[in-house]
Design goal:
Thrombin, subunit H, alpha+beta, single chain, 13 strands, six-stranded antiparallel barrel, globular
Length: 291
């Protein structure tokens, strides 16, 4: 299994294992009584998975900390009927971007080795900002600041972090320019809905990319070996998008962009993962209560 250098610095987590691929040494097929036909049948999945890695996406100018996330096999029931389409799903992504951008910030982290950056979004009217834990984990006591859509830089306090869910909460002085974003009801969210990833990829603040929800309950490993479900999207997300919101066509937050799949260390290949907003909001509320 080819390991990439990742999209950031250390620490790194476990390697990616494609569902159905044998977890022993790379390139060593399991023993079989089927002989050559069985080996030939395995050739395609082994080739297809070679070099595929899912990595955290917080890297900025100095390379923020990252980790790997490993998707797990998801059993499907062919007899199960698909859920009904959500009625009245709007398609005006221009309006969604206009509603979301004032609530999205660029997160700047000063580390011992330089600096790194990610994204975040306004959680409430008290100045709380939600981002990823791995965006701020490598700060080593360095300063953290956020830059809003109006260009103002504000010093941020780290209220709390939760590595297992990869969620962190910051606090800044409340401002009329920082608008809290509404949160989506995931029970009414459907696969195929249009979404926008909003953030600061490669330091390009206020960047919006479009896609759809590819899956709602994709089992992945986040924060090491912890298995949990994530929202999968094909919206283009890249280093610097970590912690930014994935929003629906109403501008409501569906999830917190966290990781992408890459091939041989490349950029986004249209497979990204976000922490579901209901889980992120629950963790954020707990951290705020403790802080």
């Amino acid at each position: 299994m080819t390991m990439t250098t990742g999209l950031g610095g250390s620490p790194r987590g476990p390697e990616f294992l494609s569902p159905g691929i044998d977890e022993r040494a790379a390139g060593v097929p399991p023993a079989t009584a089927g002989g050559a036909p069985a080996r030939a049948a395995r050739r395609w999945p082994l080739v297809a998975a070679a070099g595929l890695t899912v990595v955290a996406i917080s890297a900025g100018t100095g390379g923020a900390a990252g980790y790997l996330a490993a998707p797990e096999a998801t059993p499907t029931d062919p007899a199960a009927a698909p859920p009904p389409a959500a009625p009245g799903v709007p398609s005006d992504l221009v309006g969604a971007a206009a509603r979301a951008l004032p609530g999205v910030v660029s997160v700047q982290v000063r580390t011992g080795s330089g600096g790194a950056s990610g994204s975040g979004f306004v959680f409430d009217d008290r100045g709380h900002i939600v981002t990823n834990n791995h965006v701020v984990a490598a700060r080593g006591g360095g300063a953290v600041s956020v830059v809003g859509s109006d260009g103002r830089r504000l010093t941020a306090e780290v209220v709390g972090t939760d590595p297992s869910s990869d969620i962190a909460v910051l606090r800044v002085t409340p401002s009329a320019a920082l608008r809290p974003l509404d949160r989506a009801d995931l029970r009414a969210t459907r696969v195929g809905e249009p979404v926008l990833a909003v953030g600061s990829p490669l330091g390009l603040s206020g960047t919006v990319t479009a896609g759809i929800i590819s899956a709602l309950d994709r089992p992945v490993r986040l924060g090491g070996t912890v298995r949990q479900t994530a929202v999968q999207t094909d919206a283009s997300i890249n280093p610097g998008n970590s912690g930014g919101p994935l929003v629906n066509a109403r501008g409501e937050v569906v999830g917190v962009n966290t990781a992408i799949a890459t091939l041989e260390g490349g950029g986004s290949i249209g497979i990204g993962f976000a922490v579901p907003i209901d889980r992120a909001a629950q963790v954020a509320t707990t951290l705020i209560g403790r802080g």
